[in-house]
Specification:
Layout: E1 3-5, H1 16-26, E2 33-37, H2 41-51, E3 60-64, E4 70-73, E5 76-82, E6 90-96, H3 105-110, H4 117-123, E7 128-132, E8 135-139, H5 141-144, E9 153-156, H6 164-170, E10 176-180, H7 188-193, H8 199-208, E11 213-217, H9 227-236, E12 240-242
């Protein structure tokens, strides 16, 4: 675990961090760990350091985020957007960097680039010099590379009422949209009262933002099955709808 992003400060969304940090320390962790989240993240980290009564063996830091904040990692960025949950709350977009376009091997050979190391240099964005018909010339990456292709994008709303405008601003065309679906439509008023979404509203958000896969989460324990949730989401969204169990593993594929 290199970083922790907290959506909001309801107990079921952060209390586990106390035990996790202590376990990491007992197991000999020395690498720094940063906790990211909305207002109160600094106080949370200070509380973790004080309440455990143990010697923390690694640096634990905090960074406060708000809508539009972004954190850069190696090869991807995490961006925060505002959720609607009755207290400061954030959702997060994890987006990979664009991938290089497809390499046109035939075009490269036509321009005089011999198969071999120069192919790799062009794919890495370097300009190369070649000799064709006795004339030295430069071949640019743009001469043989297609348009950049998008990386994968995962959007997590956290607990929230529907926030389609925010999703349109920050989370369009998600390869995976993980959306609050606490209630079915029979409890739509309760959902609004307690700042949650219904499965149908999650489906509407997925459709509006052109998501590929919709994962319904945070389903209330009042339900003994999720048949209605799945049906209501699928009525609003033509893509793939899943209702994952804990520890479910999903391979997020590229769009193209």
């Amino acid at each position: 675990v290199d970083a922790i992003f907290v959506t909001h400060w309801h107990a079921d969304h952060f209390l586990g961090i106390f035990g996790l940090v202590q376990t990491m320390s007992f197991n000999g962790r020395t690498e720094p760990l940063t906790l990211y989240g909305p207002v109160w993240v600094h106080e949370c980290v200070e509380t973790i350091k004080k309440i455990g009564r143990f010697n923390l063996k690694f640096p634990l830091d905090s960074v406060e985020l708000s809508e539009g904040s972004w954190v850069r990692f190696n090869g991807y960025t995490v961006t925060a957007f505002a959720a609607s949950h009755g207290l400061p709350a954030l959702g997060y977009v994890l987006e990979e960097d664009p991938r290089p376009g497809r390499f046109d091997r035939e075009r490269a050979i036509e321009l005089g680039v011999p198969p071999g190391p120069l192919f790799g240099r062009l794919q890495r964005g370097e300009t190369v010099k070649v000799t064709k018909d006795g004339e030295e010339r430069e071949v640019l990456p743009s001469d043989v590379m297609g348009a950049p292709r998008p990386g994968r994008k995962i959007v997590y709303t956290g607990d929230t009422r529907p926030v389609i405008p925010a999703l349109l601003s920050y989370g369009k065309e998600a390869d995976l949209l993980i959306h609050d679906a606490t209630y079915d439509e029979s409890e739509k008023k309760r959902a609004a009262e307690f700042y949650h979404a219904t499965a149908a509203q999650a489906g509407q958000a997925a459709a509006a933002t052109d998501a590929r896969v919709l994962a319904l989460t945070h389903i209330s324990s009042r339900y003994t099955d999720t048949v209605a949730h799945a049906a209501e989401a699928k009525a609003a969204f033509s893509g793939t709808v899943i209702i994952p169990d804990d520890l479910f593993m999903l391979d997020v594929t590229y769009r193209n």
